[in-house]
Design goal:
Helix content: 40-55%
Order of helices and strands: HHHHHHHEEHHE
Number of strands: 3
Mean pLDDT: 74
Distance between the termini: 36 Å
Length: 191
């Protein structure tokens, strides 16, 4: 690995928001509705019965919403299926989600599983880069910042520096900091 390789941006940073959503789903006390009819019925209650508002939210016609609610249509196309799952999970058990967020930002923090590619770039190093799985804690202070940014609509680029805070550089036997490089980072957040 050369110095130029060490300067490359780390790919795979688009996983922070998905990891936060997975962590929240683990805290659910009841299963999320699975069928299109049940999902549509739930989302209609959240939209206060407005088929027009739900149709706009899902990107379909009012008639399509009514057909799924009535059960005449049962198998949605992939785009609609993905929208139903995403919208249902984002609205499911808001009180449980709020409790988990409060706990993470005040007392427990979060655990982060990071898969990273580490390698040394110093001259004369025979160490080749390799993937490692690292589990580390995120303090309640950082967890609170992450959750507040997510609630404010932050992008992956905004959240990544908080989740992947740099750890101190390892010290070599002669006391000098070891050069290092990191790429291909993926996260799993656990409240």
């Amino acid at each position: 690995m050369t110095n130029d390789d060490a300067q490359q941006p780390a790919p795979g940073r688009g996983k922070v928001l998905a990891a936060l959503a997975r962590a929240e789903r683990k805290a659910f006390t009841r299963p999320v509705p699975k069928s299109a009819k049940a999902q549509m019925k739930f989302l209609l209650t959240r939209a206060m019965g407005s088929t027009k508002a739900l149709a706009e939210r899902l990107g379909v016609s009012r008639r399509t919403v009514e057909r799924y609610r009535a059960g005449t249509l049962t198998t949605p196309q992939k785009r609609l299926q993905a929208a139903l799952v995403e919208e249902t999970e984002s609205e499911w058990q808001p009180q449980v989600r709020a409790q988990v967020r409060e706990q993470a930002s005040t007392t427990s923090g979060m655990m982060v599983d990071v898969t990273a590619y580490f390698g040394f770039v110093g001259k004369g190093s025979s160490d080749d880069g390799r993937e490692r799985s690292i589990t580390t804690d995120i303090s309640p202070t950082y967890a609170k910042q992450i959750l507040e940014l997510q609630a404010a609509g932050a992008t992956e680029e905004d959240l990544h520096p908080l989740v992947a805070r740099p750890s101190p550089s390892p010290i070599s036997r002669n006391g000098a900091p070891e050069p290092r490089a990191c790429a291909r980072i993926s996260h799993t957040l656990c409240p």
